[in-house]
Design goal:
The protein is of the alpha+beta class. Helices cover 28% and strands 19% of the residues. Strands 9-10-11-6-12 form a five-stranded antiparallel sheet. A two-stranded antiparallel ribbon has the order 1-2. Strand 3 and strand 4 form a beta hairpin. Bound molecules: flavin-adenine dinucleotide (FAD).
Amino acid sequence: MVEKGRATGVVTADGSRYGATKAVVSSIHIHHLLDIVGEANLGPDYVAGIARWKPSVTMFAAHYALSEPPRFKTEAGSMASVTMGGLESLASLARMLAAFRAGRLDLDDPVILALTPTVIDPSRAPAGKHTFKLIGFLPYELAEGPQHWDVVKDEVADRLFESVAALTANLSPAIVLGRAISSPLDLERRNPANWRGSCHGGASTPDQSGWFRPVEGWSNYRTPVSGLYQTGACTHPGGSVSGLPGRNCASVLLADLGSSLVREEAAGSASR
Ligand SMILES: Cc1cc2nc3c(=O)[nH]c(=O)nc-3n(C[C@H](O)[C@H](O)[C@H](O)COP(=O)(O)OP(=O)(O)OC[C@H]3O[C@@H](n4cnc5c(N)ncnc54)[C@H](O)[C@@H]3O)c2cc1C
């Protein structure tokens, strides 16, 4: 809700209205901010900045429930690991990026992350069982179009699984209790913040960093709408679970309200 250039509250999808006594803080993706707040309120420069926004390298995520942890082959024998990264050579990385840019799925020598959080935190699964996640860096924009992910995602998951299984002593379909596959398209469907499959708001290229994030000249968490603040992965310093965009935004917001993080923390009112 914007009245006379000032954010006065929020209307949710079910029609509920929430008045803002001091400010509105948005963490939604800036592309959706445009749809919600409107071009007229954001102004041409901000809107042009949103139009230039580029997604980051997109991820393919396959989640598994396992009856035992994968044991990776090492020179010291096989062992379970919370985190494993698979990158055979710089040539593999160059091939991955070339295929990514062309919208091709090159799975012969994939760059992979494999995570088994239950190795360090057994509370994440029933006793003795494990959660396992495979991350591939694959394009949202397939040459056949993003919808093609619905056709190929199970096969892609199988190929990634086989690549990682070859590095282990025991990973095979025999220890898989269940799986849930999220293609870059699924990630966007699940959470609009994963715009075009981008899981970190957008690329952290020089033209989308610092002064330019989210939009040139608006890196201070304020927006052209007075009382509307923007935080989250689209703002500095970008995506990942760092808490930093929120911390920085809170600092600016409190300054505008005549206070500061230090003062509020000292007063024990940070949570309020
Ligand atoms: C598969 C995957 C693996 C990742 N791995 C890591 C990792 O290992 N380490 C790491 O640090 N980061 C990781 N990330 C990135 C990290 O999750 C994000 O960068 C981070 O969560 C972004 O925080 P955010 O608050 O901006 O957005 P989000 O955490 O996405 O929160 C936005 C929230 O707003 C809701 N929302 C969005 N749009 C609307 C709307 N229009 N109306 C109402 N609600 C809306 C969403 O449902 C969501 O709940 C990963 C992300 C993915 C997808």
